[in-house]
């Protein structure tokens, strides 16, 4: 039985309303709202910021340079402590000189790699943890107002983990005859970029 004009109009309006609602939801996700937007904001934040990228890759690189168990422990310590720093930022608890601490993380970790420093495991973990607090606090304070904090935290931890894995993968070059020199050269580059952020020219 054919629909009446009124019924067809009602169905058309309903379909249009559903379509607009879906488009609005998708747009909200890309502006940082809700669970999806919170996750995407958190995931992309460390990946799109060079000051974060160099430090997180450096953690993986240094861990690979130090060998087991540091190769796995340091990339675990960093995101865990970073999540704690993020919680401090979300709660509005201040930490002095956050941007300076982030820039110094690139300088210090880069130099540790460049000079092939073989620190004891607990010392390496403490150094990484200290810098992780600064990075986490920056993430927490930059949380979009409408974003889901838990989803944001999960996103930036996963994004950080991927950067650590990149560093670990690069660190595996130590198995090649020239690999150690390449990694140490990468440490120099990381320290230089960190220095540029520290000087305010990057």
How many alpha or pi helices?
8
Largest sheet: none
Structural class: mainly alpha
Shape: globular
The residue ranges in which pLDDT falls below 50 over 5 or more consecutive positions are 1-34
Helix content: over 70%
Distance between the termini: 69 Å
What percentage of amino acids are in beta strands?
under 5%
Radius of gyration: 22 Å
Overall mean pLDDT stands at: 79
Q: SSE order in H/E notation?
A: HHHHHHHH
Number of strands: 0
Overview of this structure, please?
Helix content is 80%, strand content 0%. The protein is mainly α and 202 residues long. The protein is built from 8 helices and no strands. The model is unreliable at 1-34 (pLDDT under 50).
List the helices and strands and how they pair.
Blueprint: H1 5-30, H2 34-48, H3 50-66, H4 70-90, H5 98-114, H6 121-141, H7 149-171, H8 179-199
Helix pairs in contact: 2-3, 2-7, 3-4, 3-5, 3-7, 3-8, 4-6, 4-7, 5-6, 5-8
Features:
202 residues, mainly alpha, 80% helix, disordered N terminus
Concise overview:
This protein is globular. It is built from eight helices and no strands. The protein is about 80% helix and about 0% strand.
């Amino acid at each position: 039985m054919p629909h009446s004009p009124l019924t067809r109009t009602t169905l058309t309006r309903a379909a249009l309303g559903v379509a607009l609602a879906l488009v609005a939801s998708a747009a909200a996700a890309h502006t940082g709202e809700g669970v999806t937007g919170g996750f995407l904001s958190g995931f992309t934040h460390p990946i799109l910021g060079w000051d974060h990228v160099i430090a997180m890759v450096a953690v993986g690189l240094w861990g690979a340079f130090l060998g087991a168990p540091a190769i796995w422990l340091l990339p675990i310590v960093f995101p865990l402590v970073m999540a704690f720093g993020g919680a401090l930022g979300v709660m509005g608890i201040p930490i002095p000189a956050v941007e300076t601490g982030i820039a110094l993380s690139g300088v210090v970790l880069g130099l540790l790699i460049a000079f092939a420093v073989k620190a004891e495991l607990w010392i390496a973990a403490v150094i990484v943890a200290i810098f992780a607090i600064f990075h986490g606090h920056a993430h927490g304070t930059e949380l979009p107002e409408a974003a889901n904090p838990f989803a944001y935290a999960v996103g930036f931890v996963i994004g950080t983990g991927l950067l650590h894995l990149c560093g670990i993968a690069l660190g595996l070059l130590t198995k090649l005859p020239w690999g150690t020199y390449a990694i140490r050269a990468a440490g120099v580059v990381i320290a230089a970029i960190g220095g540029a952020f520290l000087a305010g020219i990057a």
